[in-house]
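Dear Dr. H.,

I hope your travels went smoothly. While you were away I took the liberty of generating a structure for the chain from your last submission, since the lab meeting agenda had it listed for discussion. I wanted you to have the full record in hand beforehand rather than looking at slides cold. The sequence, exactly as received, is reproduced here:
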Amino acid sequence: MVKKRGIVWNYYNKKILGSQVIAFCKFCNQSYIQNATRMERHMGRCSKCPEDVKQQFIQVAHSKKHKSDSTDNKLNDRWPKQESPVDSSITDTKLEDFYEWNYKSQSYLADTVQQQINFIKHNNTQNWTSQNNVTKSNDTHTKCTSRNWENQNDTGTIASAGIQEQTSSVQQTKSYSPKEIFQWPVSAQTYEPSSLRNKIYQEQLLEKCALRRAAELDVQRKMLELERFQWEYERDKLQTEVRWAHETRMMQFKEERERQLTEQSRIRTPSSII
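The corresponding predicted structure, in token form, is as follows:
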């Protein structure tokens, strides 16, 4: 009986390399060894695939998952529960989902760390620019007051040379104006950095550095977990390959032994007849 070709092959190009059949996606050229489940899952996640085709394969995946869950529930109801080993419960699809989830979480954590670093730099630049603006405003205020004082001095000398009656008024302005001009503004005094403000700023900076370090350690933990799962996967794969090679070699030895026995039996039968 010839198995019916699946609808997923309408969106893949087939290429044969030796004994393997490799399928290439027509939209993003992603390659898969002949496996209908993986091919259908890829069509549900392909970024270049049309939306209607993607929704179709997503529905197919959901229906298959529902059927498998229902069959598992039926079997669990019929048969007593047995503890299965951890290695048998981990399948290729679960490993693929785990790699994809770990890649997304790692990229998300890297983005959050970068955003926190940019936020700290932005706050530092804002604080320094605000302090520089305050000092610049104070400098401009003192320059303006000194210019006004010089202008008043010039007008006072001209008035004293021309009219002697106005000298008393000019002297009065000279005697009262320096106290009002050379007094520092209140805004400059309030914006001066104090020890308490410096301590608060240092505590905030330390807190941000601690959060950044915690995020970096979390990223390292995720990477180590990913390496551990990869190592376990490679270990299981290598053990399976070694076991398969051993079984194949033993089958070859068994066939060779049977062939030798049949040849010996054929040689003995004519001699016994003679």
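Two observations you may find useful: The first strand starts at residue 12 and ends at 17. The chain is about 75% helix and 5% strand.

With kind regards,
E. W.
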